Amino acid sequence: MSTPRARILGLGTFVPARTVTNHDLAEVMETSHDWIVERSGIEERHWVDAEEGNYTMGVKAARAALADAGVDASEIDCIVYATLSPDYFFPGCGVLVQRELGIGHVPAFDIRQQCSGFIYGLQMADVFIRAGQYRKILVIGGEVHSRGLDKTTRGRTVSVLFGDAAGAAVVGVSDDPEAGILITRVHSDGSDAECLAMQYPGMAAGRDSYVTHDDVESGRIFPNMEGQKVFKNAVKRMPEVIQEVLDAQGLTVADIDMLIPHQANLRINEMVAKQIGIDASRVHNNIQKYGNTTAATIPLCLSEARAEGKVKKGDLVCLVAFGSGFTWGSVLMRW
Ligand code: COA
Q1: Is 318 noted as a catalytic residue in this protein?
Q2: Is the CB–ligand 1 distance for residue 292 below 6 Å?
Q3: C or N: which end of the chain has fewer Cβ atoms within 10 Å?
């Protein structure tokens, strides 16, 4: 019996209704629309209202993906939930989705690879399916950044970049021998783990308690980022891993019909495109409207590109991401 090939059977997204423009941010911190657009390309992002949380968005995205795939929730035999901003320290969001969708007692993984989380999740789904372990897997990426950002001038370098959203894919056995995931590659390098991180609250050595008043008052509880180091590593690692998946398939950049890069910064993506020599018409970006939604950017961007007719049957699609850890990876698929 030949090895089954995995394919994205359906995609779904959920973006909270509340839009936060750069002008809105300039009301609460010292920043400007022009600074944010010039440095990152971001014009607005969406932040949750009180009634929404991470897994509630994940459930909505998952329902949309199931409907798109024509798959009933009862057919799902595994859940992979990628997030850095879970509802609870534990348990993870995966079991909350399992409960909410009334799926059977299937395995539910939460994975912690930040901006590369969805790519890591797709690799897990691909390998599980090719191994014959599971047949229909929900891969979800969801983030609620807005509740964890320092929305004052002190935190402006980080807080202007991030938005809330969720995206999901139903990954299953492909019924079309030509279509599906061709290859996945993921990597990590922990040498700079703390240069893009949220270290508090936490259980690290030397702490009396996982959170203290001083952690809150000093602002240590907010994410920290060495922006330029992240930028430099992103523009190195993303071209590298794109080349790696292409080489492994005997393909070249000219074969890519659509590149879907992680949406951290439009300047990063423009630089990556220039380095690999792909025309802007074959790269889809939507960070302008959503900011960096971390584990949700890839499904958000891919499903928008498909809706706009930029991803069609038979197209070679390349997904690529880089983020905290550092972690990075790429997926090459025939749509
Ligand atoms: N509004 C206005 N000014 C701001 C600002 C904001 N939101 N954030 C920082 N500044 C100021 C700084 O205080 C600094 O002022 P100074 O020169 O008086 O000291 C100046 O702008 C430049 O700051 P710097 O941090 O050096 O800017 P930068 O050119 O490196 O751009 C980023 C900052 C964050 C946009 C950029 O480094 C970046 O995009 N890095 C990658 C981030 C990323 O992708 N993260 C997620 C990865 S998954």
Answers
A1: no
A2: yes
A3: N
Using DSSP's 3-state secondary structure scheme, residue 130 falls into helix
Among 176, 210, 245, which residue terminates a domain?
A: 176
Residues 6+ apart with CB under 8 A from 121: 80, 81, 82, 111, 139, 140, 141, 295
Of residues 262, 265, 285, 286, which has the active-site annotation? 262
Query: How many Å lie between the centroid of ligand 1 and the Cα of residue 257?
Result: 32
Q: Which atom of ligand 1 is nearest to the CA of 25?
A: 7
Cα(280) to ligand 1 centroid in Å equals 25
Same domain, 289 and 192: yes
Name the pTM for this structure.
0.97
Within a domain: 54: yes
Q: Give the Cβ contact number of residue 252 at 10 Å.
A: 12
CATH at 141: 3.40.47.10
The CA–CA distances, whole Å, from 265 to 21, 41, 128, 132, 160 equal: 16, 7, 32, 38, 11
Per-residue model confidence as pLDDT tens digits over 78-125: 999 999 999 999 999 999 999 999 999 999 999 999 999 999 999 999
List the structure tokens of 87. 């509802």
Residue whose CA lies nearest to ligand 1 atom number 20 = 157
Q: What is the mean pLDDT of residues 268-279?
A: 98
CB of residue 199 inside a 6 A radius of ligand 1: no
| Rounded Cα gap, residues 282 and 286, in angstroms | 13
Full domain range(s) for residue 213: 181-334
Tokens linked to 258: 């659509």
206 and 131 share one domain: no
For residue 1, the model assigns a pLDDT of 61
Evaluated on CA atoms 174, 284, 263, 236, the torsion sign reads positive
DSSP assignment, residue 5? P
Residue 2 in this model has a pLDDT that exceeds 90: no
Q: 305 pLDDT exceeds 90?
A: yes
- Ligand 1 centre to CA of 43 (Å) is 15
Express each pLDDT in 160-202 by its tens digit.
Answer: 999 999 999 999 999 998 899 999 999 999 999 999 999 999 9
Q: Which helix (H) or strand (E) holds 319?
A: strand 316-323
- Closest to 63 in 3D by CA, of 106, 118, 100: 100
